[in-house]
Write a structure and sequence with these properties.
The complex is a heterotetramer of chains A (509), B (124), C (877) and D (213). By secondary structure, chain A is mainly alpha-helical. Chain A has 21 helices and two strands. Chain A has one domain. Chain D has two domains: 33 residues, no CATH class; 121 residues, no CATH class. The chains are: A mainly alpha (509), B mainly alpha (124), C mainly alpha (877), D mainly alpha (213). Chain A: Belongs to the CPA3 antiporters (TC 2.A.63) subunit D family. Chain A: This is Cation:proton antiporter. Chain A: Keywords: Cell membrane, Membrane, Transmembrane, Transmembrane helix.
Chain lengths: 509, 124, 877, 213
């Protein structure tokens, strides 16, 4: 158990340290990165197997018992998130190596691989943290790595975008720290399970204030409306591999933090009404933003914001089915979002940009790429038989099961958002993929076919294909996935298992 | 008996307020200043979760209540993290200035472009 | 379990086809026809068992926890639909092999999607799980989107495809909600279970049924959602024949018929189904009467017939059900035959316009005969299957013949059906006349007879119409398989050519007479139609919807997404005040949050020293805000830091104070490094409301946090966990607790912290220590899109509208030095200055322009030609 | 950590090129943040601020070993009195910052024993290695092992604990961070500024001889 829980954090960090020493040997760096990520994938899959039955496993860093030392915890939710994230991280890493082979990362200093590994460790630590301050540290690792990554190959646009990104993230970090101070002030502990227990004796109104404060803190990072503005201004500007991983993972980590804090810490108070209102606003504002964008990456970023709203909707239902739906949605969305951004990277190879206003006929230029786009686009739009449909069916089912006028409003917003998502993603298809191909795209294709970049490009395309396949597997494995999701949802609603695993039998009272 | 004195609470309020105000400025350097001040504010908040005037958490055998070491450790961690990140922000600000020759936070161009549209570009 | 295997066969063949297209050309359609043929054969082989009341079932678990399962159940209705969908499908695939040329673009893709469509349709009509039904249902929407948009270089095709997709998926989502409501109410997502044991009535059920019916109506092109179907006629003709005559549009009818046994009694059901069906029937027939394009004529005819089918399927009586199955089969056969005939005509003459066709009856006698036969079936003439079905339909609504609908409604229905039959007869006649007659005003077309293979499919389909008409017992068998589930009428009814001299026969004679008259007076009818006011068009509503959505989207985005960092941060602060802030104030007001009094913690300060240091901090931090010169403000900032360190000392935190002083010193030094490059003063915001509001916002946020801190710490009960550290210090072997926490008790935090430091250090150096030439890396050289020969950076690529790329400005680096030829921003969308963006916004919409000529071809042309009559002149945005 | 070693003044440009530049496949000129750009800096090395002060420079050189010793003391004694890896690292880096301020980037380059990146990587290896080592025995990460030597000459009883390794890693990383930031935001900018100054002059007169008249 100790090893299983330590590997996702320590192995990438060791890899990063080794990789920093190998700046002169990019091949070696790539090898180290792939090895480390593979180890993480294997480890997290094992972790998922252990926790799939709903058991919660813990490890006490430094061997000090729970409220004193830092606890590392894996429950079904965190190990599922870990496993999916690890797989996506690995595939994006391989895509990046493809880009390296194709010579497309010429101008980047050789720090991508170490920082990417640090990002991996940060993401894993966030999912594993059983301690609020440790969660803060995990967030900081992840965010600092993301600051470093978003400024890779700094054009002026990127520098501008990362300024917005960095300052907003720093603000949320400061607020997070403030929140920790408040929680410590009230409870005298930072261990999540311990906080959960001690908050029980605190005045309800103060708990509510904390719940809302933490919703805001994590909501900034999860890009909840009205705190979403920074995301569409920053993600699309980063280079492909980085925007892919950001879009796939970073907001999801924040969503995970929202789920964890709102269920485990503040679960006994009901802020569903706030959550549902936020969800409605997020779904609609996000997708409205997507509809008027001309840049594919920006469109996808707005769609990302919008679909975070779906997850908050599920959380706001405050039921096992709702949480299970969120879990399914998270897994689906991580894979699909990464996939779409990778495809956008491929599109750039043909079009040289990602603007829909000067893009036509990609369908003819590269049928394979169109396929790679179409599948995740359908999935994002929630069309069957892909993972997006499963997630949406789960969510709507949970919503109908709960009922109430606010939930019905949210359902209506969800249906409207789904339709608008269809319109948004198929707008990309109709404008960018259909039509007579632009002459320079055809030229580009011919040049790519002859060029020395072919091997790397093929590798990139293959990795995109792998991601598509993973998306299909998620859809096909909807059975086991939803089963784990329900177990996770049950654990989250209950909380006893988590608290007792950390603090010992009977701690949850 | 835990709550800190009102003077300190007032100091925290002022620190947060000034930090936020600097953060909301367009000048990049003032934004950096804002982050630095907010860092102080957050660390001070952590410290204030504890009794006031007390002995350091050193187990030297002296009598008297010692201060709570955990917020101190967390604040220390936070100070160093803030330092690291602030230096990055500074480098970034420098680079923005290098690119735009302007010590101001630039607005997003695509947002402004869309902001100028009066009609939807396509509705088909 | 054979059925899932056949479905899988569809998918497998679809995956294979694109690979084979290059080698086999249009012949791949013969391969593509195999899965539907297999399905039809399977259905025939199982027919006797199924019709004797033993449905075939199969199931594949998918997500049992979510009640999503691929369950199949083939009963009488499913069998009829399977035979139609797969049987007609197989014939049409054969036709495709002759229709398409080998050099058709995307042939493999087309074939693959058609097979996928066939598979999805088979799924729709055989599945027994509501979710699975939705899955297959939406798959047909998507495949039809791709098929309609097959000729994607035509603007018209793209538009029609999008329209069909938006209409069907939008309503499909409503249907999904309806399904979930039904499933939740019944606790069961199996259709057979739901129909056998429908949930209790009430507003819940009403809502669910309305949602489900909306989805079904949109799919089956019922008024007012019918507009997508005629527009979708831009698809290749075999596709239209398959999707828009035989298969997809029957989906909604099928769903209505499928649910009718369980829900026909519900009030809203009958009202909706009967009124919508009736309206669709008449509107479609009326519009079909005046189309010039043969394909559009058939499309509106299909709309009319779909209304008819909905009416029959929803009526919920045995006779109506019998009539529905009969009409379903009849319509599938004759409408496909007619579409395929139009395809042949189009293929041979290059036109489908009535006003341009003449004398084809002489040139293509076989085709003329076949089409006439099929049209006669459509018109309901004996001895064709269409006649038998229509007789049954009229019989179903003879007042008093069945317990429901009530006599008055039945009378209205009967009149409606009769009127629609008249219209049907008239447009059928007009079709035959328009396609094959010799028109004196039109030059005779010169076209050869089609090849036998080409004509085979319509021949087979028309022949089937005839055979089944002569021997309606075959269809009747199928029909009874479904109808027996419904409440019986006064006497059993069977499809037959001769029932004796019944009132319905008389009605048929009247219908034919009126139809003939209507056809002969077609000019007068045309004038009448032109004279009538234009009805509010649902397509107009669709455009209104789109325009509304985009306008709302734009205004929301324009208002919310300002692109300005201070605004974003201000909104974050406002959110803090609005959520936790308001909650805190509310708690204070209601008394839910206790305010500590003097006896439990309220005090001004703990030592005068504290007051002194706090004053220093307060004064200097406010001074920092007010100071606009760089170095003085830096010094003030420094004092704030040292003041904070002083407070730490007072609070017994020497470690913290030491670290803070060191960090503060270093920060200052590094700030000096950068600050000396920057202007000597910071930019100042003008005084005014904006500034006052900012001050207010920040003060409020700061006060909220401080207040919350005070209240929270005051509310703590019990000791913090950290008291445990002192007890364990001996074990850890040290006396400085803070350091022991950092290096031992909570070393994981420290580990993370140093990782942050490493990352920040690497980030700083990778940001600043770039090579000179890379200092501001060009977008496309960082990720070169296309490494153009002779231009390694790929900077030569500028696919944007001309003029924007040239606006890249040289970048000024430190001081006044300009890096020459700096290709800063190549992305055409992101001009370096707002001027560039302006120019961009005003640039003409290049992508659409070259496609204008395309619109004169294909169905678009037909529709345009039609518009002189004042119809369908929808302003296409 | 070695102290001041004037003998190793300035790595050769070639070595620097290898460290920083080779990885860059563009074939661009190697990046060396510390090696002087000889073309522009043939005669003078400017300190970071103001004119060169020999007194300050000498004082800085003399102080460096003392400061470093003090920082190591802070590092080692951290468990019992204020100090520890952070404070120690910060103090140690202060020594270098002082040298940089006094003597400019060349003076800084002369003083440090290792490139900042190496320090960072080494520190991270130490920290993570210490954290991961207990896993090999199946124990939780970061578990502390200690060994007490009872009869050491001169020192008597001395305890070696694995957290000391951990703290040393922290120490190295803090020094590495400060050095790379100084290198990036201080020395690098300084070099740029000189380059610009030199270019301006060479643009006018065609001869870029030195800094001062």
């Amino acid at each position: 158990m100790n090893t299983l829980l330590a590997v996702p954090v320590l192995v990438p960090l060791l890899g990063a340290a080794a990789s920093l020493l190998m700046r002169r040997a990019p091949r070696l760096q790539q090898g180290v990165a792939v090895a480390a990520l593979t180890a993480v994938v294997v480890d997290t899959v094992l972790l998922l197997r252990v926790t799939a039955d709903g058991s919660v496993i813990t490890s006490q860093a430094g061997a000090w018992e729970a409220p004193l030392g830092v606890t590392v915890v894996a429950d079904p939710l965190s190990s599922l998130m870990l496993a999916v994230s690890a797989v996506v991280l690995l595939v994006v890493q391989l895509f990046a190596i493809g880009q390296d082979i194709a010579g497309l990362s010429r101008a980047m200093p050789q720090v991508f691989h170490p920082i990417y590994l640090v990002l991996t460790a940060g993401v894993c630590l966030c999912f594993l943290a059983g301690d609020l301050f440790n969660l803060f540290v995990g967030f900081e690792i992840m965010l600092t790595a993301s600051y470093a990554l978003i400024t890779q190959a700094p054009t002026r646009a990127r520098v501008r975008a990362s300024m917005i990104y960095t300052v907003v993230s720093l603000t949320s970090s400061i607020l997070f720290l403030t929140g920790i101070a408040l929680i410590y002030g009230l409870t005298g502990t930072v261990n999540l399970a311990d906080i959960a227990v001690k908050l029980g004796g605190a005045p309800e109104e103060l708990r509510m204030v904390l719940a809302l404060l933490f919703l805001v803190v994590f909501g900034i990072k999860a890009a909840l409306v009205p705190m979403h503005f920074w995301l569409p201004d920053s993600y699309p500007v980063a280079i492909t591999r980085i925007s892919a991983i950001f879009a796939a993972l970073l907001t999801k980590v924040a969503v995970y933090a929202i789920i964890r804090s709102q269920t485990l810490l503040f679960g006994r108070d009901d802020i569903s009404a706030v959550l549902l209102c936020v969800a409605i606003a997020t779904m609609l504002v996000g997708i409205f933003g997507a509809l008027v964008q001309d840049d594919i990456n920006r469109l996808m970023s707005f769609a990302l914001v919008s679909h975070i709203g779906f997850m908050i909707f599920g959380l706001g239902l405050n039921s096992v089915a709702g949480l299970a739906a969120v879990v399914v949605y998270l897994v689906h969305h991580i894979v699909v979002q990464a996939n779409l951004f990778l495809v956008n990277g491929l599109i750039r190879q043909y079009a040289g940009h990602s603007s829909l206003r000067a893009m036509r006929g990609l369908n003819t230029v590269s049928p394979v790429m169109s396929f790679y786009f179409f599948i995740p686009a359908m999935s994002l739009a929630g069309l069957p038989p892909l993972s997006g449909f499963v997630a949406k069916a789960a969510l709507f089912q949970a919503g109908v099961g709960v009922g109430g006028w606010l939930v019905y409003t949210a359902l209506a917003a969800g249906v409207a958002t789904s339709l608008l998502t269809v319109m948004a993603v198929f707008r990309i298809w109709v404008r960018g993929f259909w039509g007579t191909p632009m002459p320079d795209m055809v030229e580009a294709r011919e040049r790519l076919k002859r060029g020395s970049h072919l091997a790397g490009l093929r590798f990139m395309a293959a990795m995109t294909g792998v991601m598509v396949a993973i998306g299909l597997v998620v859809a096909g494995a909807a059975g086991p996935l939803s089963e784990i999701a329900f177990i996770a949802g049950h654990d989250l609603m209950n909380g006893t298992a988590y608290i007792e695993a950390v603090l010992g039998e009977g701690a949850a009272r | 008996m835990n709550a800190p004195g009102l003077v300190l609470i007032f100091a925290v309020a002022v620190l947060y307020s000034t930090g936020f105000y600097l953060l909301l400025q367009r000048s990049l350097m003032r934004v950096v200043f804002g982050i630095v001040i907010l860092g102080h504010a957050a660390n001070l908040s952590l410290m204030l979760t504890d009794h006031a005037i007390t002995l350091p958490p050193l187990l030297t055998g002296k009598d008297g209540p010692i201060s709570d070491p955990l917020p101190q450790a967390m604040a220390l961690t936070a100070i160093v993290i803030t330092f690291g990140v602030t230096t990055f922000l500074l480098a970034l600000a420098y680079r923005v200035w290098l690119g735009d020759d302007n010590d101001e936070v630039p607005a997003d161009l695509e947002d402004r472009r869309i902001g100028r549209l009066s009609e939807p570009e396509d509705s088909s | 379990m054979l059925l899932p295997a056949i479905l899988a066969l569809h998918a497998a063949v679809a995956a294979l086809l694109p690979l084979l297209a290059d080698r086999f050309g249009a012949r791949i359609f013969l391969l593509a026809g195999l899965p539907p043929a297999a399905a039809a054969v399977w259905a025939l082989a199982n027919a006797s068992g199924i019709l004797s009341g033993a449905p075939v079932t199969a199931g594949i678990a998918w997500a049992p926890a979510l009640k999503i399962g691929l369950d199949f159940r083939v009963d009488g209705l499913s069998l009829a639909m399977t035979l139609l969908v797969s049987g007609v499908g197989a014939i049409i695939f054969g036709y495709c092999a002759a229709y398409f040329r080998a050099d058709e673009r995307g042939l493999g893709r087309l074939a693959a999607i058609m097979v996928l469509f066939a598979g999805s349709m088979l799924g729709v009509v055989t599945t027994d799980n509501l979710f699975a039904l939705y899955v297959f249902w939406e798959l047909t929407s998507i495949t039809s989107f791709l098929l309609v948009g097959h000729e994607d270089h035509k603007e018209q095709a793209r538009r029609a495809a999008t329209q069909a997709l938006v209409t069907t998926t939008g309503t499909g989502l409503l249907m999904l909600i309806g399904f979930i409501m039904l499933g939740t109410a019944a606790g069961d997502y199996s259709i057979s279970g739901l129909v056998a044991d429908p949930p209790e009535g009430g507003p819940w059920l009403t809502g669910a049924l309305v949602l489900v019916l909306v989805g079904a109506f949109a799919k089956s092109a019922q008024v007012p959602l019918h507009f997508w179907l005629p527009a979708a006629m831009v698809a290749p003709t075999p596709v239209s024949a398959y999707l828009h005559a035989a298969a997809m549009v029957k989906g909604g009818v099928y769903l209505v018929a499928r649910l009718a046994p369980g829900f026909a009694e519900a009030g809203v059901w009958q009202a909706l189904v009967l009124s919508v069906g009736l309206a669709t029937m008449i509107v479609g027939g009326w519009r079909a009467l005046r189309q010039d394009d043969l394909k559009l004529l058939l499309a509106y005819g299909t709309v009319s017939q779909l209304g008819f089918l909905t009416l029959l399927g929803g009526a919920g009586t045995q006779v109506a059900a019998t009539a529905m199955i009969g009409t379903l089969i009849a319509h599938g056969l004759f409408k496909s035959a007619l579409f395929l005939s139009v395809g042949v005509i189009d293929h041979e003459t290059g036109s489908r316009s009535i006003s341009r066709l003449s004398g084809l009856g002489r040139r293509m006698p076989l085709l003329a005969a076949v089409a006439t036969l099929a049209a006669a079936s459509m018109a309901g003439l004996p001895p064709l299957i269409g006649f038998a079905a229509k007789e049954a339909a009229l019989e179903a609504f003879v007042p008093g013949a069945a317990p429901s609908p009530p006599p008055v409604a039945a009378g209205a229905m009967l009149a409606g059906v009769a009127l629609a039959s008249v219209l049907t007869f008239a447009y059928s006649a007009r079709f035959v006349w328009g396609a094959f007659a010799v028109k004196p005003t039109v030059a005779e077309n010169r076209a050869g007879a089609p090849s036998p293979l080409f004509a085979a499919a319509p021949v087979v389909l028309a022949a089937l119409s005839l055979v089944l008409g002569i021997a309606p017992a075959l269809v009747d068998h199928l029909a009874q398989g479904y109808a027996h589930a419904l409440p019986a009428g006064h006497k059993p009814y069977h499809l037959a050519l001769w029932h004796g001299l019944t009132p319905t026969l008389l009605l048929t004679v009247l219908v034919v007479a009126a139809g003939v008259a209507l056809f002969l007076k077609r000019r007068a009818v045309g004038r009448l139609q032109n004279a009538m006011p234009r009805w509010p068009d649902a397509e107009y509503g669709y455009h209104l919807f789109l325009h509304g959505v985009y306008t709302v989207a734009l205004s929301v985005t324009r208002r919310s997404q300002s692109g300005s960092l201070p605004v974003y941060l201000g909104i974050i602060l406002a959110t803090i005040l609005a959520l936790p802030g308001v909650r805190l104030v509310a708690g204070l007001i209601t008394g839910g949050i206790a305010v500590p009094g003097p006896e439990d913690g309220l005090r001004i300060w703990d030592s005068p020293l504290e007051l002194l240091v706090a004053t220093v901090i307060v004064v200097t931090s406010i001074a920092t805000v007010r100071e606009h010169r760089r170095f003085p403000s830096l010094i003030l900032l420094n004092v704030v830091g040292f003041g904070t360190a002083g407070l730490f000392v007072l609070h017994g935190a020497p470690d913290l104070a030491l670290t803070l002083v060191l960090v503060e010193t270093l920060t200052t030094i590094i700030l000096v490094f950068v600050l000396r490059r920057l202007p000597t003063t910071f930019s100042v915001r003008p005084d005014g409301w904006g500034k006052r509001l900012t001050v207010l916002l920040c003060t409020a946020a700061g006060s909220f946090i401080a207040l919350a801190l005070w209240l929270m710490t005051a509310a703590r009960s019990g000791d913090p966990v950290s008291t445990g550290y002192a007890d364990r210090a001996g074990e850890a072997g040290g006396t400085n607790l803070v350091n022991m926490i950092l290096a031992d008790f909570r070393a994981l935090d420290t580990l993370g912290e140093v990782v942050v430091l490493v990352t920040a250090a690497v980030a700083v150096s990778s940001l600043v220590l770039l090579n000179r030439r890379d200092r501001v890396v060009d977008e496309s050289s960082a990720e070169p899109a296309v490494p153009a020969p002779g231009n390694a950076g790929g900077t030569g690529e500028d696919p944007g509208p001309p003029g924007t790329g040239a606006l890249a400005l040289p970048v000024h680096t430190a001081g006044a030095e300009a890096v020459g030829g700096e290709p800063a921003e190549r992305d055409p969308r992101r001009g370096p200055e707002s001027d560039a963006a302006d120019a961009d916004a005003e640039a003409p919409e290049a992508p659409e322009a070259p496609e204008a000529p395309d619109e004169s071809e294909g169905p678009a042309g037909g529709r345009r030609g039609d518009s002189e009559q004042g119809e369908d002149s929808d302003d296409e945005r | 950590m070695s102290g001041d070693e004037p003998a190793r003044a300035g790595p050769s440009p070639g070595r620097a090129a290898g460290e920083w530049g080779r990885a860059d496949r563009s074939g661009a000129p190697p990046e060396n943040w510390e090696a002087p750009r000889e073309r522009w800096l043939s005669t003078a090395v400017r300190p970071a601020f103001g004119p060169r002060s020999v007194l300050l420079e000498v004082a800085a050189r003399l102080l460096t070993p003392a400061i470093l010793v003090f920082s190591v003391f802070l590092l080692v004694s951290g468990h019992d009195r204020p100090g520890g890896g952070f404070a120690g690292g910060l103090v140690a880096s202060m020594a270098y910052v002082l040298r940089y301020i006094a003597g400019g980037r060349r003076e800084l380059a002369a003083g440090i024993p290792m490139r900042p990146n190496g320090l960072l990587a080494l520190g991270m290896l130490l920290v993570c290695g210490t954290a991961a080592a207990p896993l090999l025995a199946g124990h939780p990460m970061l578990e502390v092992y200690s060994y007490t030597a009872h009869h050491l000459p001169l020192f008597g009883e001395v305890k070696f604990a694995s957290y000391l390794l951990f703290e040393s890693g922290v120490f190295l990383i803090v020094v590495g961070l400060v050095l790379s930031v100084v290198a990036a935001l201080g020395a690098r900018m300084e070099a740029e500024e000189e380059e610009i100054r030199g270019r301006r002059r060479s643009g006018g007169a065609g001869a870029a001889k030195g800094e001062r008249p």
